[in-house]
Write a structure and sequence with these properties.
309 residues; 8 helices; nine-stranded antiparallel beta sheet; 33% helix; globular; five-stranded antiparallel beta sheet; alpha+beta; D-amino Acid Aminotransferase, Chain A, domain 1
Length: 309
């Protein structure tokens, strides 16, 4: 039943990175662990402070976008814990791409010119910006890999009504514009990201994390154009460097492949990169906090009491 048992707890779910506790009928306690996943596999070692980095970036970004659409967040009682409204999730990830990078580039470089029903222009290089951002949704898989899906398939399969889709896509593009503006102030380019939404009653709410290194890819703006012109690799802040290390060690989450060993030094490197991203994205100094389980529990209980549970 999870690591904790909170007052009025009714359910527990262990995700790849987050532990989610349902309280009563209407609240969720979401604990961002230090687990790290790539290619839909949880890697064998935890990354110090990763949960705190993800939780605190997400909380700041939810606050900074609350005027665009409602979101689930109500309180942040501990560095790696968020309490919010329980939503009925859309079984979709709203992936939005401003640049041709990652999965979109792998698709494009294989010769494909359509992604999730969206036509891709000819003549682009890796990391080039699209003429305007594109939405390339994915279905949320209970197990295994998420699958690309088009707007038409989403509506046909009943994953969202046309009206809901229009709201989701409008919110997605507005959030992405805000995310790009926040990034630009910090000398970063938000290249792509994903959002997850759910409903409370008839209201569509933004859920989960937003603009974090696990859900987004950032480039350094300084020197971006010059690197593109010279065909050099872009400097980026994201989890992609972990994926690249896995690929270089012959692991892509496929059957029969083994996750490579992670040295202490490599674990520390990943932790440092997450902290760097926090500081770069927020413009604030990271203050590491490692709470005991008892202290985390007590803060969550107090947070729930303050929300009048």
């Amino acid at each position: 039943m999870g690591k904790f048992l909170f007052p009025q707890q009714t359910a527990f779910y262990k995700g790849k990175v987050r532990d989610v506790y349902t309280i009563g009928n209407g609240l969720l306690v979401m604990i961002a662990s230090d687990r790290i996943s790539a290619f839909d596999v949880i890697l064998p070692r935890a990354i110090p402070y990763k949960g705190q980095v993800l939780n605190q970036i997400a909380a700041r970004m939810l606050e900074a976008t609350a005027d665009i659409c409602p979101n689930w967040l109500l309180a942040v009682p501990a560095p790696n814990v968020a309490i919010g409204k329980k939503c009925i999730p859309f079984k979709l990830e709203m992936v939005v791409r401003g640049h041709l990078v990652g999965h979109a580039w792998r698709t494009y470089s294989s010769g494909e010119r359509t992604l999730c029903g969206v036509k891709l222009p000819e003549g682009l290089k890796e990391n080039d910006p699209f003429p305007s951002p594109i939405i390339t949704p994915a279905t949320k898989a209970e197990q295994g890999h998420d699958e690309d899906i088009s707007k038409e398939e989403i509506i046909a399969k009943g994953l969202a009504t046309e009206e809901d889709w229009n709201t989701l896509s409008s919110y997605t593009l507005q959030l992405f514009e805000r995310g790009k503006a926040i990034a630009a102030k910090q000398g970063l380019i938000l290249a792509d990201t994903k959002y997850e939404f759910g409903k409370t009653g008839d209201t569509i709410c933004l859920m989960d994390e937003i603009h974090t290194p696990d859900s987004s890819r950032y480039f350094y703006a300084d020197g971006f154009e010059q690197r593109q012109q010279k065909g050099e690799r872009q400097k980026q802040l994201s989890k992609e460097f972990v994926r690249e290390w896995l690929i270089a060690n012959n692991f892509m989450g496929k059957e029969g492949q083994t996750v490579p060993d992670m040295s202490d030094e490599w674990v520390q490197t990943i932790s440092n990169r997450y902290i760097e991203l926090f500081e770069k994205v927020t413009g604030e100094k990271f203050k590491p906090e490692m709470l005991s389980e008892e202290e985390t529990y007590n803060r969550v209980v107090k947070g729930l009491e303050e929300l009048n549970m």
